[in-house]
Amino acid sequence: MTLEQLNQLTAQDAESEFLKCCGSQAWAQAMAASRPFTTEEELFADAEDASTSLTDEDWLQAFRAHPKIGEQKAAAGQTQQEANWSAHEQSGMQAAATDTLARLARGNREYEAKFGFIFIVCASGKSSDEMLAILNDRLKSDLQTELRVAAKEQQKITRLRLEKLLNQ
Asked: Where residue 73 sits, what CATH number does that domain have?
């Protein structure tokens, strides 16, 4: 999709495209309303700006659009495109040892029990062992710190997905 095509979509269709990049309805609505974009840099800047007004619940909604690290299916419905993007982003899991997968699954459960939402990390370019180390480190955080860290990771994912949306 080109920037011009994105600008020409109806508001509803634009929201649907933006929801593939970040599962927050508030963020997607803000992005659809920000159009037209004259450059990709403007799109990325507006995406960052739209993120600053999100509430904790908006972030939690975005997190629910992702599968857990090491899993294929998100708690919220995913489009096939989102599932493909997730699988590619988590490609470091393909070579994971059985023990690492088991430890990630345990860590995911512990994380979700502690914080009330799934472990979010920008997995692109990370091995399963790296993701496990990040998970274990972040389990030491308090809720408010972790929510901010997870939101920053979501912003990284959103940026990558916006790039993918424009280059598909």
From this structure: 1.10.3330.10
Condensed to tens digits (0 to 9), the pLDDT of residues 76-129 reads 555 665 555 555 555 455 666 788 888 999 999 999 999 999 999 998 888 889
CA–CA gap between residue 87 and residue 71 (Å, rounded): 9
Range of the domain at 150: 3-166
* pLDDT given for residue 90 in this prediction: 55
Spatial separation of the C-alpha atoms in residues 136 and 82, rounded to whole Å? 26
Report residue 96 as tokens: 């994971």
Contact 3, 166 (CB under 8 A): yes
| 66 is annotated as an active-site residue | yes
Q: How many structural domains are present in the chain?
A: 1
Encode burial over 39-49: b for 16+ CB neighbours within 10 A, e otherwise: eeeebeebbee
Highest mean pLDDT pick, 103-107, 154-158, 164-168 = 154-158
From the candidates 66, 138, 159, 161, which is the catalytic residue?
66
